[in-house]
Design a protein that fits this description.
The protein contains three helices and four strands, in the order ββββααα. It is α+β, with helices and mostly antiparallel strands. The mean pLDDT is 88.
Length: 88
């Protein structure tokens, strides 16, 4: 059994799985202490006993990567970028 290296979902900082980390309960992305506090403030953590047993007490309800408003903004940004590329 070896050490696994995992990237943080937001900043992509790669860390080993021996360090503290948690997941987003919606999209299952991994978060380390570098980006977790900001995501926790925005979205909160899981509340139900079932979710806490499965994900852990500190798992996020959702995150910037799966939040509906952020997805819509990312789609809009990509559409604008593609349009600009096609026009040039």
């Amino acid at each position: 059994m070896g050490v696994e290296f995992i990237p943080c979902a937001i900043c992509e900082d790669v860390r080993n799985d021996c360090e503290w980390y948690t997941h987003c309960s919606k999209c299952e992305e991994t978060f380390f202490d570098c980006c977790y506090p900001e995501q926790e403030k925005k979205y909160g953590t899981v509340k139900s006993k079932k979710d806490k047993e499965y994900w852990g007490d500190e798992a996020l309800l959702e995150c910037d990567l799966c939040s509906k408003s952020n997805k819509e903004n990312r789609v809009r940004e990509l559409q604008e970028k593609l349009k600009a590329e096609l026009e040039s």
